[in-house]
UniProtKB/TrEMBL annotation:
Pfam families: Epimerase
Protein name listed in UniProt: Nucleoside-diphosphate-sugar epimerase
Entry-linked InterPro entries: Epimerase_deHydtase, NAD(P)-bd_dom_sf
Species the sequence originates in: Agromyces flavus
NAD-dependent epimerase/dehydratase domain location: 7-208
Length: 315
């Protein structure tokens, strides 16, 4: 590409939605993944390379105006090994290109909080995953403050939407059972209020943060609908596909602890158990006030999600 373009690292649900949004708006996009996969669009170029290879990624980012970190290193047990070199490489690529760095983040860095999470809520992680995400942001912010690169971050809660992967994340795993009429065993309190973030709303927020200089030097929460419990979401999804009332069994803490001793993924889920044991609520009103981003209509989001998840589950 000789024209200015925007580079996206990662082609999961968020990276793909972002690529299509940018391309539909007339921007040229380069998507970097190990496999060379990604969104199919005339304005999207797909490149196969290892994004943790700093030299190769910097070459791919040459000429980019914005670099979006939408990478997903895989399962939790791999984070400590994979994320540090990957994040450092993406930061280096943005700095080398003179591009804005926009990172797709999450809420793990806040740890347990009393009340809604807001932009000014301090980062106080309670497990290694949250500490790692907080450290990644602090390193990027230090580079921004030193004048080396312009950075910002979008922080979203658990994904909801037709493209959110089934069998990835707790809610889709529960829905994989309840949408086929089977009982599901859940972590935490299924009746605790919880914020859910639409994949398309994440993409919309990332796109705005990349072009609006008011965003740079700070992290922003992605606007989400009012909080709804796990039970209520599963009930609403089930009603749309005729699955009936969800049958939920709460996993006792002792059982989660025992299982976590032998299953690494369960052990990692226990580290963020607080997110489902108590209200887990996002207040992104400041993002809406500054940038005008509002969440997708809740009923429309559920309609699209239920239909897609039902089809992919094979009902």
């Amino acid at each position: 590409m000789t024209e200015p373009f925007q580079l996206i690292v990662g082609a999961g649900p968020v990276g793909t939605a972002l690529a299509l949004r940018l391309a539909d708006g007339g921007s040229r996009v380069r998507v970097v993944t190990r496999s060379g996969g990604g969104a199919s669009h005339p304005l999207v170029e797909r490149v196969a390379l290892d994004a943790s290879d700093a030299r190769s990624l910097a070459d791919a980012a040459h000429g980019a105006s914005v670099v979006y970190n939408c990478a997903n290193p895989g399962s939790y047990p791999l984070w400590e090994q994979v994320w540090p070199p990957l994040a450092a490489s993406i930061l280096h690529a943005a700095e080398s290109a003179g591009a804005v760095l926009v990172t797709m983040g999450n809420l793990y860095g806040y740890g347990p909080v009393d009340g809604p999470m807001r932009r000014e809520t301090p980062l106080r992680p309670s497990d290694h995953k949250g500490a790692l995400r907080a450290r990644m942001w602090e390193e990027a912010l230090a580079a921004h403050q030193a004048g080396r690169v312009r950075v910002t971050e979008a922080r979203a809660s658990d994904y909801l939407g037709p493209t959110a992967p089934v069998s990835s994340g707790l809610l889709p795993r529960y829905a994989e059972r309840t949408l086929t009429g089977r009982p599901a065993t859940v972590f935490g309190d299924p009746d605790a209020p919880h914020s859910w973030t639409a994949v398309d709303d994440i993409a919309a927020t990332l796109a705005v943060l990349g072009r609006d200089e008011r965003a740079w030097g700070s992290a922003w929460l992605v606007p989400s609908n009012p909080p709804v419990s796990v039970r209520e979401v599963l009930r609403a999804l089930g009603s749309r596909v005729g699955a009936g009332e969800p049958r939920l069994r709460r996993m006792p803490r002792w059982a989660a602890a025992s299982l976590g001793a032998v299953v690494p993924v369960v052990r990692e889920v226990r580290g963020v158990h607080y997110q489902f044991d108590r209200p887990f609520v996002v207040d992104a009103s400041e993002t809406t006030e500054v940038f005008g981003i509002t969440p997708t209509d809740w009923d429309a989001l559920l309609d699209a999600t239920a239909a897609s998840w039902r089809d992919r589950i094979g009902r």
